[in-house]
């Protein structure tokens, strides 16, 4: 295979505990032609120092610093700096298996795809980093989009920008907007709706290992940003379903509303009282967008959506009971 540079873009913020495993996995890739861009977003721990130490050991690493402005600004800076034919985004607290880039690049070139994707494996915070297992043969694990709609659905197997090798041209002028939640889905929606995007390939193997820890997005408590995410994901829904009605089955609005219900249910009784107005807004949003929320061929999603739309308080009560039961069982 002719060597082609892959630019790896990694925003860095207060990840001193995880950055060594992350960079070990990147620098140890079986495909060596990499440009590794570390964008430190104003870290207050030793993350920046660790990045600079790594840059001294591996000439492929370039370290940049910016005042704290968020992951979107850091990723956009990486896009501007990147010189590779392909771009790959990664979070600095995750790690990838040693042949991920080689496999994705091989499939992208083989099928002349605009993006090659894989799936991810969630890992607990105390999980040990490993180089990964032998992933060959991959027969039966490769899916190729036959049209724009098929390909977009493959790209959204993981909503965020990780797990993907993008051809530089397909990103074009797409950039990450400054939202705290759903900015990554909006980015991919803009890529899919762009004229340059036509074909994607998916390798159904978890090359990417996503670390779940107490400070990660999946562990955060109810916040106002989740209400903003409902609006952003509604925007994505409208954009994507204009391309193909098949995107309704991703259930973007249903997932967005579910996030608010679940985060709210996990609060204490006193905390729920404090955020009563926000939850009222969520119920209103679900009712106003009930047609889109219920527009799914999946029976479970339809039932869940109907509960949120028509009997939201009862559904919330059921969620609260479920979370309290789990807490009691775990001894929390």
Give a description of the structure.
This protein is α/β, with parallel strands linked by helices and 332 residues long. The chain has two domains: 6-217, Spore Coat Polysaccharide Biosynthesis Protein SpsA, Chain A (Alpha-Beta Complex); 221-330, no CATH class. The chain has helices at 19-27, 47-57, 71-81, 100-111, 148-155, 168-171, 183-193, 225-243, 252-265, 269-274, 276-288, 290-293, 299-310, 312-330; strands at residues 6-12, 34-41, 61-66, 86-89, 95-96, 115-124, 142-144, 164-167, 200-212. Strands 1, 2, 3, 4, 5, 6, 7, 8 and 9 form a nine-stranded mixed β-sheet that branches. Helix 7 packs parallel to helix 8, helix 9 packs antiparallel against helix 11 (276-288) and helix 9 crosses helix 14 (312-330). The longest helix has 19 residues, at 225-243. The mean pLDDT is 92.
Cα separation of the termini:
54 Å
Give start-end ranges of low-pLDDT stretches: none
Order of helices and strands: EHEHEHEEHEEHEHHEHHHHHHH
CATH architectural label of the largest domain: Alpha-Beta Complex
Mean pLDDT: 92
Helix content: 40-55%
Largest sheet: 9 strands, mixed
User: How many beta-strand elements?
Assistant: 9
Radius of gyration over alpha carbons?
A: 21 Å
Domains (count): 2
CATH topology name of the largest domain, in short, is: Spore Coat Polysaccharide Biosynthesis Protein SpsA, Chain A
Given the helix and strand composition, which structural class is it? alpha/beta
The CATH class of the largest domain, by name, is: Alpha Beta
**Helical element count?**
14
How much of the sequence lies in strands comes to 15-25%
Superfamily at the CATH H level of the largest domain? Spore Coat Polysaccharide Biosynthesis Protein SpsA, Chain A
**Molecular shape:** globular
């Amino acid at each position: 295979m002719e060597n082609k540079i892959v630019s790896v873009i990694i925003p860095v913020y207060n990840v001193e505990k995880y950055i060594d495993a992350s960079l070990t996995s990147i620098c140890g890739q079986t495909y060596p032609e990499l440009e590794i861009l570390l964008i430190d977003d104003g870290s207050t721990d030793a993350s920046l120092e660790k990045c600079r130490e790594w840059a001294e050991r591996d000439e492929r690493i370039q370290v940049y610093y910016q005042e704290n402005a968020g992951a979107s600004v850091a990723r956009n800076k990486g896009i501007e700096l990147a010189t590779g034919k392909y771009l790959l985004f990664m979070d600095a607290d995750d790690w990838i298996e040693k042949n991920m880039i080689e496999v994705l690049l091989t499939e992208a070139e083989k099928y002349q795809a605009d993006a090659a994707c894989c799936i991810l494996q969630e890992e607990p915070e105390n999980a040990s980093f490993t180089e990964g297992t032998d992933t060959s043969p991959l027969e039966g694990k490769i899916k190729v989009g036959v049209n724009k709609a098929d390909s977009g659905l493959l790209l959204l197997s993981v909503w965020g920008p990780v797990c993907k090798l993008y051809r530089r041209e397909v990103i074009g002028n797409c950039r990450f907007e400054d939202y705290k939640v759903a900015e990554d889905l909006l980015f991919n929606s803009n890529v899919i709706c762009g004229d340059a995007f036509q074909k994607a390939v998916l390798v159904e193997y978890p090359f990417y290992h996503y670390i779940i820890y107490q400070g990660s997005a999946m562990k955060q408590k109810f916040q106002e940003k989740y209400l903003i995410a409902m609006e952003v994901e509604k925007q994505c829904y409208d954009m994507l379903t204009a391309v193909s009605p098949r995107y309704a089955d991703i259930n973007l609005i249903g997932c967005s509303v579910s996030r608010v219900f679940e985060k709210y249910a996990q609060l204490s009784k006193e905390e729920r009282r404090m955020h009563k107005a926000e939850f009222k807004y969520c119920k209103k949003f679900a009712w106003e967008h009930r047609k889109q929320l219920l527009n799914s061929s999946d029976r479970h999603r339809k039932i869940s959506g109907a509960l949120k739309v028509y009997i939201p308080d009862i559904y919330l009560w059921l969620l609260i009971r479920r979370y309290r039961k789990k807490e009691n069982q775990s001894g929390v």
